[in-house]
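Ticket #4471: structure output looks truncated?

Reporter: J.K.
Steps to reproduce: submitted the chain below (172 residues) through the standard prediction queue, then opened the result file.
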Amino acid sequence: MTNELTAEETRRAQEHEEQRERIRRQHLKPAGERPASSARGLHHTALVSSDVEATVRFYQDLLEFPLTELIENRDYPGSSHFFFDIGNSNLLAFFDFPGLDVGPYAEVLGGLHHVAISVEPTRWEHLRSKLIDAGVELIEHSEVSLYFRDPDGARLELIADPLGEMYGSHVL
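Returned output as attached by the reporter:
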Protein backbone atom coordinates (compact mmCIF):
# COMPACT_ATOMS: atom_id res chain seq x y z
CA MET A 1 0.00 0.00 0.00
CA THR A 2 1.34 3.43 -0.93
CA ASN A 3 0.92 6.74 0.88
CA GLU A 4 0.65 8.67 -2.38
CA LEU A 5 -2.62 10.47 -3.08
CA THR A 6 -4.52 9.96 -6.30
CA ALA A 7 -5.12 12.97 -8.51
CA GLU A 8 -8.75 13.04 -7.35
CA GLU A 9 -7.75 12.92 -3.66
CA THR A 10 -5.22 15.71 -4.23
CA ARG A 11 -7.85 17.83 -6.00
CA ARG A 12 -10.36 17.30 -3.14
CA ALA A 13 -7.73 18.11 -0.51
CA GLN A 14 -6.90 21.34 -2.34
CA GLU A 15 -10.60 22.26 -2.57
CA HIS A 16 -11.04 21.66 1.17
CA GLU A 17 -8.02 23.83 1.99
CA GLU A 18 -9.32 26.59 -0.31
CA GLN A 19 -12.68 26.47 1.48
CA ARG A 20 -10.99 26.67 4.91
CA GLU A 21 -8.92 29.62 3.73
CA ARG A 22 -12.04 31.40 2.42
CA ILE A 23 -13.83 30.84 5.73
CA ARG A 24 -10.77 32.05 7.70
CA ARG A 25 -10.57 35.24 5.59
CA GLN A 26 -14.28 35.92 5.95
CA HIS A 27 -14.88 35.00 9.59
CA LEU A 28 -11.68 34.62 11.64
CA LYS A 29 -10.69 37.91 13.26
CA PRO A 30 -7.24 38.47 14.80
CA ALA A 31 -7.23 37.90 18.59
CA GLY A 32 -7.09 41.63 19.39
CA GLU A 33 -10.12 42.34 17.20
CA ARG A 34 -12.45 39.60 18.47
CA PRO A 35 -15.31 40.61 20.72
CA ALA A 36 -15.59 38.99 24.14
CA SER A 37 -17.70 35.84 24.15
CA SER A 38 -21.23 36.06 25.45
CA ALA A 39 -20.65 32.77 27.33
CA ARG A 40 -19.02 32.28 30.73
CA GLY A 41 -17.83 28.75 29.93
CA LEU A 42 -19.02 25.21 29.42
CA HIS A 43 -21.27 24.36 32.36
CA HIS A 44 -21.47 20.68 31.49
CA THR A 45 -21.54 18.28 28.60
CA ALA A 46 -24.11 15.50 29.04
CA LEU A 47 -23.61 11.99 27.65
CA VAL A 48 -25.76 8.88 27.91
CA SER A 49 -24.75 5.99 30.18
CA SER A 50 -26.04 2.42 29.94
CA ASP A 51 -24.80 1.56 33.44
CA VAL A 52 -24.41 4.18 36.18
CA GLU A 53 -22.01 2.14 38.32
CA ALA A 54 -19.79 1.16 35.39
CA THR A 55 -19.65 4.81 34.34
CA VAL A 56 -18.74 5.90 37.89
CA ARG A 57 -16.01 3.27 38.11
CA PHE A 58 -14.54 4.37 34.76
CA TYR A 59 -14.64 8.13 35.27
CA GLN A 60 -14.00 8.35 39.02
CA ASP A 61 -11.87 5.31 39.75
CA LEU A 62 -9.87 5.05 36.50
CA LEU A 63 -9.74 8.65 35.23
CA GLU A 64 -9.84 10.21 38.71
CA PHE A 65 -12.68 12.66 37.97
CA PRO A 66 -14.60 12.93 41.27
CA LEU A 67 -18.33 12.21 41.22
CA THR A 68 -19.96 15.41 42.51
CA GLU A 69 -23.71 14.70 42.37
CA LEU A 70 -26.21 11.96 41.58
CA ILE A 71 -29.86 13.04 41.26
CA GLU A 72 -33.02 11.96 39.49
CA ASN A 73 -33.36 13.21 35.93
CA ARG A 74 -36.28 15.63 36.06
CA ASP A 75 -37.21 14.81 32.44
CA TYR A 76 -37.50 11.03 32.79
CA PRO A 77 -38.67 9.38 36.04
CA GLY A 78 -36.33 6.62 37.19
CA SER A 79 -33.43 8.05 35.21
CA SER A 80 -30.31 9.39 36.91
CA HIS A 81 -28.41 12.60 36.15
CA PHE A 82 -24.89 12.55 37.56
CA PHE A 83 -21.84 14.76 37.35
CA PHE A 84 -18.04 14.49 37.44
CA ASP A 85 -15.60 17.31 38.19
CA ILE A 86 -13.23 17.74 35.23
CA GLY A 87 -11.49 20.80 36.69
CA ASN A 88 -11.71 24.54 36.19
CA SER A 89 -15.36 24.54 37.42
CA ASN A 90 -16.38 22.31 34.49
CA LEU A 91 -18.51 19.20 34.69
CA LEU A 92 -19.01 16.07 32.62
CA ALA A 93 -22.57 14.85 33.11
CA PHE A 94 -24.45 11.68 32.27
CA PHE A 95 -28.02 10.45 32.02
CA ASP A 96 -29.15 6.87 32.09
CA PHE A 97 -32.51 5.92 30.59
CA PRO A 98 -33.59 2.63 32.16
CA GLY A 99 -36.17 0.82 30.07
CA LEU A 100 -35.42 2.75 26.88
CA ASP A 101 -33.61 1.10 24.02
CA VAL A 102 -31.22 3.95 23.22
CA GLY A 103 -29.08 1.72 21.01
CA PRO A 104 -25.28 1.65 20.79
CA TYR A 105 -23.10 4.74 20.63
CA ALA A 106 -22.90 6.20 17.12
CA GLU A 107 -21.04 9.12 15.63
CA VAL A 108 -23.58 10.97 13.52
CA LEU A 109 -23.95 14.46 12.08
CA GLY A 110 -24.88 16.75 14.93
CA GLY A 111 -23.66 14.18 17.45
CA LEU A 112 -20.59 13.86 19.60
CA HIS A 113 -17.24 13.18 17.96
CA HIS A 114 -15.15 13.35 21.14
CA VAL A 115 -14.71 15.19 24.42
CA ALA A 116 -11.18 16.58 24.92
CA ILE A 117 -10.15 17.12 28.54
CA SER A 118 -6.94 18.96 29.43
CA VAL A 119 -4.78 17.44 32.17
CA GLU A 120 -1.37 18.41 33.51
CA PRO A 121 1.48 16.57 31.73
CA THR A 122 2.44 14.53 34.82
CA ARG A 123 -1.22 13.57 35.36
CA TRP A 124 -1.44 12.68 31.64
CA GLU A 125 1.45 10.21 32.05
CA HIS A 126 -0.13 8.77 35.21
CA LEU A 127 -3.54 8.32 33.54
CA ARG A 128 -1.91 6.88 30.42
CA SER A 129 -0.32 4.17 32.60
CA LYS A 130 -3.62 3.48 34.38
CA LEU A 131 -5.49 3.16 31.08
CA ILE A 132 -2.86 0.79 29.68
CA ASP A 133 -2.88 -1.29 32.89
CA ALA A 134 -6.70 -1.47 32.68
CA GLY A 135 -6.50 -2.78 29.11
CA VAL A 136 -8.16 0.28 27.54
CA GLU A 137 -7.28 0.55 23.84
CA LEU A 138 -5.46 3.86 23.22
CA ILE A 139 -4.38 5.88 20.23
CA GLU A 140 -1.59 8.31 21.09
CA HIS A 141 -1.09 11.41 18.97
CA SER A 142 1.69 14.03 19.02
CA GLU A 143 2.92 12.81 22.42
CA VAL A 144 0.25 14.93 24.17
CA SER A 145 -3.08 13.33 23.19
CA LEU A 146 -4.62 10.02 24.16
CA TYR A 147 -7.79 8.91 22.39
CA PHE A 148 -9.91 6.09 23.82
CA ARG A 149 -13.52 5.09 24.40
CA ASP A 150 -15.56 4.92 27.58
CA PRO A 151 -17.63 1.84 28.49
CA ASP A 152 -20.46 2.99 26.20
CA GLY A 153 -18.20 3.82 23.26
CA ALA A 154 -18.02 7.62 23.61
CA ARG A 155 -14.66 8.84 22.34
CA LEU A 156 -12.54 10.77 24.82
CA GLU A 157 -9.27 12.61 24.51
CA LEU A 158 -6.91 13.41 27.35
CA ILE A 159 -4.65 16.22 26.17
CA ALA A 160 -1.59 17.47 28.04
CA ASP A 161 -1.69 20.86 26.32
CA PRO A 162 -2.93 23.75 28.46
CA LEU A 163 -6.44 25.09 27.98
CA GLY A 164 -6.53 27.34 24.92
CA GLU A 165 -3.69 25.51 23.16
CA MET A 166 -3.70 22.72 20.58
CA TYR A 167 -0.44 20.90 19.93
CA GLY A 168 1.60 23.92 21.00
CA SER A 169 -0.41 26.51 19.04
CA HIS A 170 -2.72 29.01 20.72
CA VAL A 171 -6.31 28.54 19.58
CA LEU A 172 -7.81 30.97 22.04
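Triage note (M.O.): checked the attachment and the full C-alpha coordinate line is present. Residues 60 and 120 are 17 Å apart (CA to CA).
Status: closed, working as intended.
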